[in-house]
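Tutorial handout. Part one gives the primary structure; part two gives the three-dimensional structure as tokens.
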Amino acid sequence: MIEGWVKNGEIRIHYLDNTGPSKETTPLVIIPGIAETGEEYEDLIQALLPRRALVVTMRGRGQSDAPESGFTLEHHVSDIEVVVNRITIDKFAIFGYGRGVAYALGYAVAHVDRINGLIIGDYPAMQKDLPEGWSDFFLKSTNRRVLESMTLETLKGIEKDSTDVDFLKHLKKIDCPVLILQGSEESVGLTEDGAKDYLRAMPDARVRIIDPDKPGSTNPKSAEFADTLKKFFQETKNCGIN
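Part two.
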């Protein structure tokens, strides 16, 4: 396991790389949720060895720099771009979780030629415009624990720069295997209707149920979840991903 930083302008973006040696399997790039850091996925990317896997910590979170401004969708997509352009991979699968799905989709629809697989982690095919006061609500709902992984300025910047972006109309050009991870019934992430929207745009996608509140193979940040991903890669081996 190695960690590194890549400059995006004046901002350093942090990533973790399991340096998997396999040349026969598709590398995986993970984009965490809105307040998550790469370290939270370290067990998962270790469990994916010998497949190469890395996780990018978005600006303002964890060990990535926190700019005073610049938290649009485009800014977040550029964080992904600078990392994958710096490391030695060409085509890869991308896995976004939570609001990280919006950043992953933003990258995927702009770089379809580099995407060999797409994994949707419990979030609809859009970036949501966050209402005024959302950052204060989110802060209270986490008992301020969110400040352990991101700055208050980042939280407010995400709220300020958020806009509604609908990816559904762009998904038809995604020509690779797709796995849709839908939360359990209590989840506030991807609803059943949201999953159906994905399937209308990408009829060959596979859907799996996850539960991030329980340990084991349904928790996207657990080592056991690697089995879910390995099963997806195995199922789609004849579709150009392995």
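Part three, for discussion. The mean pLDDT is 91. DSSP finds seven helices and ten strands in the chain.
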